Amino acid sequence: MTASLPALLVLEDGRAFHGDSLGATGETFGEAVFCTAMTGYQETLTDPSYHRQVVIQTAPQIGNTGVNNQDDESEQIWVSGYVVRDPSRVQSSWRSTGSLDDRLTAQEVVGISGIDTRALTRHLREQGAMRVGISTETGDPRALLERVLQSPDMAGADLTADVSTATAYVVPAVGKRLHTVAAIDLGIKAMTPRLMAERGIEVHVLPASSSIDDVLTVGADGVFFSNGPGDPATAAGPVALMQQVLERSLPVFGICFGNQILGRALGFGTYKLKYGHRGVNQPVQDRATGRVEISAHNHGFAVDAPLDGPATTQYGRVEVSHVCLNDNVVEGLRLLDVPAFSVQYHPEAAAGPHDSAYLFDRFVQLMQGGR
Amino acid sequence: MPRRADVHSVLVIGSGPIVIGQAAEFDYSGTQACRVLRAEGLRVILVNSNPAKIMTDPEFADATYVEPITPDIIEKIIAKERPDALLPTLGGQTALNAAIALHESGVLEKYDVELIGADVDAIQRGENRELFKAIVEEIGGEVARSAICHTMADCMAAAHDLGYPVVVRPSFTMGGAGSGMAYDEVDLHRIAGSGLAASPTTEVLLEESIIGWKEYELELMRDKNDNVVVICSIENLDPMGVHTGDSITVAPAMTLTDREYQDMRDLGIAIIRAVGVDTGGCNIQFAVDPADGRLVVIEMNPRVSRSSALASKATGFPIAKIAARLAIGYTLDEIPNDITAETPASFEPALDYVVVKVPRFAFEKFPAADPTLTTHMKSVGEAMAIGRNIPEALQKALRSIEKSDASFSWSDIDDDVETLVEQARKPHDGRIKKVQQAMWLGATAARMYNVTGIDPWFLDQISIINEVAAQIRDAAELDPRLIRRAKRHGFSDQQLAQLRGVSEDVARHLRQALGIRPVYKTVDTCAGEFAAHTPYHYSSYDEETEVRPRSKPAVVILGSGPNRIGQGIEFDYSCVHAAMALRAVGYETVMVNCNPETVSTDYDTSDRLYFEPLTLEDVLEVVAAEQQVGPVVGVIVQLGGQTPLGLAQKLKDAGVPVVGTSPEAIHLAEERGAFGAVLAKAGLLAPRHGMATSFEEAKAIADEIGFPVLVRPSYVLGGRGMEIVYDDDMLRDYIGRATQVSPEHPVLVDRFLDDAVEIDVDAIYDGTELFLAGVMEHIEEAGIHSGDSACALPPMTLGRADIERIRIATKAIANGVGVRGLLNVQFAQASDVLYVLEANPRASRTIPFVSKATATPVAKAAARVMMGATIAELRAEGLLPETGDGGTMPMDAAIAVKEAVLPFGRFHGVDTVLGPEMKSTGEVMGIDTLFGTAYAKSQVAAYAGGLPTSGTAFVSVANRDKRSMIFPIKRLHDLGFEIVATAGTAEVLRRNGVPATVLRKHFEVVGDDPEPDTIARILDGTIDIIINTPYGVGARLDGYEIRSAAVTKGVPCITTVQGLGAAVQGIEALIRGEVGVRSLQEHAADLEKARGAAL
Ligand SMILES: Nc1ncnc2c1ncn2[C@@H]1O[C@H](COP(=O)(O)OP(=O)(O)O)[C@@H](O)[C@H]1O
Ligand SMILES: Nc1ncnc2c1ncn2[C@@H]1O[C@H](COP(=O)(O)OP(=O)(O)O)[C@@H](O)[C@H]1O
Ligand SMILES: [Mg+2]
Ligand SMILES: [Mg+2]
Question: Which of A26, A130, B46, B442 is the most exposed, fewest CB within 10 Å of its CB?
Fold first, then answer.
């Protein structure tokens, strides 16, 4: 318990918290968001959707199981900053290969600990997600606030290029190959291709900038649009690609950002939620069956589609297939005349419950011509 | 989809008396269930033999039957009430077993009663360990290797291939009754023997030991649409091998990655589906191999359990309430989450704090019991604490448990590292402190892990506490940063003081002067994602407090902390009633308590709930926090038992208003000298007594007043440390031990009154009028603790004159002491002289019993009187009867009998003889027009089988009892019992014309003489009732083997002549036949009428 270096956190609206340095020293900025998951911090940190966000863990004791080399969702930690009340100094897990703190330091992630994370969370809940800065370099809130105000805003941010793979790569099917899917990487998590591969899908992960021809040349019998960071309103490229795919009636499955892309391709608007959904305990109802799935969420934006009955779009009828029972936010879209559907939440989980894994089977059925 | 329209009335079965393994948590769950079912407009019929519960209050059901939970009694109730459905999943194993019995005997079908919330096959699949294991394996889960055995021979064979040690576990029992860890054949014989006996299906399971693995629990819920949610994960700090009920447990699970957690969750969900728990809650236990994560399923409980009570309090998700709604057809998404109001119950709570539960044991009361913790639950209660990290929650929990030596400490450690490490090896009450001190003295975490199997992460949390302690101790001076750090790690002012060598007050004043005060966070089920509408708070030394401003005046009610022998849910009952009564007249009620099992810690019982330890520091901070946000009228210390009472003076000294009886008055009653003066002034007698601080003084007193004397420390509850002493040696020995009990108070030496009738009185006094709430006559003579002896109301042998004398005496005491509110007095009447044994200026253990027997809300009325109402006003208001009271019960009023329930079956080798030290964990009530019938009901409610109506009675009584037993035994014989007796007893009986066969005492048997002796006869089940009054002194009185054999075989064993008399009346009543049932509501109506007639 050596007295550690002090750190400072300042929100865009001026509220400041004094704590201890966590991970790397220095200064960082991003959008302050809170995640209520009690497990899976390693998956959270390495989820590209958190790019440019400073994640506040509401669970007070984090790092207990250290980090391992199996649970990463991507090659690196993406969060731009990390806020934990009580980071663990030891790791207890037969799979652990190192400590969280070392990993944060090694990847130069600036964090802060020892602050009233619940107070910060409630503030964001009331005031909405906002920019934040964390610094070990200044103890002066005013100085840091100025730099926070200069940092870029999340609304209008186009971050796809930062997270998408530079070159295409293939995740081979497990066992016999039954289908080929082109997965547009807008910030894809490692678990997603894995779950498709387990279902006999050969997954060609393509850069976000891919064209319809790239998709066709891999001989895809289905196209997947992944999750990812940023404001969907800036994703003109992927939206255009989605439209071309829909025109060809190629089976489509989208997750999270992919759901917003589908929404925009259909002509719906997207909007920023006050403070988003981030956690692994969210009740989502499948409106067809009435069944409730406990699901993993990580989204700050949502699709603005009508909840009352199907809407007609240039690609035919579309219905809202899933809603979040907490706030009736649109959590899924399903086209009735074209083989396409998407969800705003995370059936690939990691972290989170596996209740929604059936959606990957649904995708397979679509590719088999089923509806 | 709305609830089912075809169900209009529901029968709810409660869990009966508080016993180890099935305690107050089922009061909480049953009460919630009754509440919601009635709110849904259903007619609720309840059967539960336990009068101490909130659940059995007439206002929580339409028809409340405080009757034995036996198939035939329940059938009578069903025949009378004709409910549409039966809800058995909220009354623990007792209710579940009763429901199965009713199903199998065809009663449910006969009266066309539908079982809701569970179906019998699902219960079988969940509870029958053999079926269950098969199911788990089918769905690809792993279980520990095992074998099902129905005979001892099977057991031996099975243990042979499984290899020792093996775990023995009977089917269909709870709290591990009859289970244990067998290290060799001898153990196996003993454990499996009682195991086979304990299981209703004479089936035990032998299982490969996976002792030392990590142990987890999941609380799940499922609705009829097959939506499943996991409410809470619980991790046991004590690894496999220590019953979860005896383990320190933590929520949420702290040492699982998401992958392992989700695998556990998937498996849990697959199990609840495969078992087919169609709606409601269930608890599934898992073990994880720390070396490779191998996941093994231990068991499931297809019902609301102790852990679900803990999970409900830990998460704010009211499992029982929701389970009841699901049972009548709602789905999770149709039920709102009370706390957020805006979101549905179909979600999984997220915690932004940690919860620690610490069990409370009572080994000090059973010196002969083996204190090693094993697979068989031994704790009698528990305390829970909430904090923002484990060090904070753990230290709060340890002080919540209210054992002076439970909290971590860093000075005057008598043992060296080696000794401490060794002591930590064996699981026992207080092991965690041994671990802390061993590490403080230098034992490494690695080493402690090797000896205890406690996960290294938890061990590090303890090291952190030790490191902070070192910083506090070594600091040149305490700067704010350091104090704050200590507070954030759960250090109490007392611990800070100890480390700095100053007084607690000094430490507190320094802290407060530096402005270091706790803030209060909210348990909101969602980690702050949504606003919470229920003020369910816990303290932490964080930045922002969430206590809301308030305009109404607040009353703070101090609860009674963890259940323990001598201070059980009876006190919670009074606290809850006070909350209800004061809420009703416009106060904002603020509850402070730390017992997760109880109704008082439901977030909707009071206006505000603070889940906090009941220490001076924690209470003062709560009061201060509430004073910040609005007017606080005062604190109620009278209802929670000795715990809050002990704080009264200190609270007052700290400037906190104490409502009701003043601390000074409390002192008058509690302090012997002062109380003696009060009695003298009132012209009342106490047994001759004196006060001693040394053996010499004690001897002097004893010589003067004469042996036997009764010795005890002052300021105790439940007769703690109280003994009957017959000679100098015993006296010397006692004084030697007594000092540990309560150092700051002297030892009291009383003349012990032989053959005195004990009378327990509860009363309310408003300063002018006395309301004699109840006069209870004990069945056992004085000398057996009031908490352990059966008693009757109205008193069966006291006449009006006696009662009037008691009324006058009670009023004189109430007046002399200066009581405002409740007063409990214990009298002993010996040869027509009335002695005062003690007066307790507080709610007593008997308040709920009295309230139900007299159909009067005594605790509510008392709470009002404390706040200034007069008895006359309450009579006018209708809260109290217009005229008369518990002392003027109508002539033909039904008689209620309270019987104590003792845990001897749990503690192998403990003598069952009753004495002045309380040993019972719970109580039951039997009510009927005749004393005999009421008594018989109380017996069957308390002990499986109850009184026999035929067969063989074995009699062996002390010489002093020989005269008085002749008549009742003769009666037994006339009633058709065969009488066998030990030589001396038999002789007396024969001379008096009672044919009695002689049975040799155990030790009289020489060689392998085939003719069975007493013990053999009891064990081979050919004795149906035992009458054995012990004589001699010491821990193992004569006849010890007889009584322990009786316990092993579950044969009713009567140890007092008075008990014998009552039993004979009971047996006669049973033989006379037709035992009817009556609801408390009917009882109240009868009394109403009779009282009216008396006008
Ligand atoms: N195979 C085993 N090896 C070691 N300990 C065990 C084993 N099975 C159970 N236990 C311990 O015994 C306790 C009680 O067992 P359990 O199956 O939960 O019975 P109960 O119905 O009494 O809860 C568990 O909490 C666990 O600590
Ligand atoms: N002088 C006495 N003679 C006989 N029995 C006594 C005497 N004093 C106390 N007792 C017995 O001891 C029991 C416990 O004593 P009590 O004063 O009630 O202690 P507690 O505070 O634990 O209730 C009483 O219920 C009574 O049966
Ligand atoms: Mg168990
Ligand atoms: Mg008493």
Answer: B442
Overall average pLDDT of the A213-236 stretch = 96
- Report the distance separating Cα B734 and Cα B694, nearest Å: 11
Find chain A residues with C-beta within 8 A of B529's C-beta: 34, 36, 58, 121, 125, 279
Calpha distance B379→B406 (Å, rounded): 15
Q: Is B782 in the pocket of ligand 2 (CB under 6 A)?
A: yes
- The Cα B59–Cα B54 span in angstroms is 9
Cα(B626)–Cα(B632) distance, rounded to whole angstroms?
7
Interface ipTM above 0.90:
yes
Q: Are strands A61-62 and A179-185 parallel, antiparallel or unpaired?
A: unpaired
Q: Note the pLDDT tens digit of each residue in A278-332.
A: 999 999 999 999 999 999 999 999 999 999 989 999 999 999 999 999 999 999 9
Residue whose C-alpha is closest to residue B879's, from B858, B851, B853, B849: B858
Q: Would you say residue A275 has pLDDT above 50?
A: yes
Q: Nearest to residue B14, comparing CAs of B91, B97, B118?
A: B91
Cis peptide before A351 (omega within 30 of 0): yes
B709 CB within 6 A, ligand 2 = no
Cβ distance of B542 and A116 shorter than 8 Å = yes
CB of B687 within 6 A of ligand 2: the answer is yes
**B466 — contact with chain A (CB < 8 Å)?**
no
CB contacts, 8 Å: A91 with chain B: 457
- Residues of A (85-104) whose Cβ lies below 8 Å from B: 85-86, 88-95
Q: Do A353 and B262 touch (CB under 8 A)?
A: yes
Q: Which residues of B touch A34 (CB under 8 A)?
A: 528-529
Contact B800, B646 (CB under 8 A): no
d(CA B624, CA B508): 13
Enumerate residues with CB within 5 Å of ligand 4 (an ion): B 786, 826
Residue of B nearest to A293 (CA): B227
Is the omega angle on the peptide bond into residue B165 within 30 degrees of 0, that is, cis? yes
Work out the number of other CB atoms within 10 angstroms of the CB of residue B903: 22
Contact assessment for residue A43 and residue A351, using Cβ atoms and an 8 Å cutoff: yes
DSSP state string for B181-240: EESSHHHHHHHHHHHHHHSTT--EEEEE--TTSEEEEEEEEE-TT--EEEEEEEEESS-T
Give Dmax (Cα) for chain A. Answer: 64
Ligand 2 close to Cβ of residue B838 (< 6 A): yes
Backbone angles phi, psi at B513, to 5 degrees: -60, -35
CA distance B629 to B627: 5
pLDDT at B691: 83
The string of DSSP letters for B380-397 reads: -EEEEEEESSHHHHHHHH
Q: Which ligand is nearest to the CA of B373?
A: 1
Give pLDDT tens digits for B340-371. Answer: 999 999 999 999 999 999 999 999 888 888 89
- pLDDT tens digits, residue range B252-310? 999 999 999 999 999 999 999 999 988 999 999 999 999 999 999 999 998 888 899 99
Question: Per-residue pLDDT averaged across B174-180, rounded?
Answer: 68
Helix locations, B415-548, DSSP H = 417-425, 431-440, 445-452, 456-474, 480-488, 493-500, 504-513
Contact B284, B217 (CB under 8 A): yes
Q: Is the pLDDT confidence value at B1005 over 60?
A: no
Amino acid, single-letter form, for residue B392: E
Q: Give the pLDDT mean for B857-878.
A: 97
What count of other Cβ atoms lies within 10 Å of the Cβ of residue B365?
21
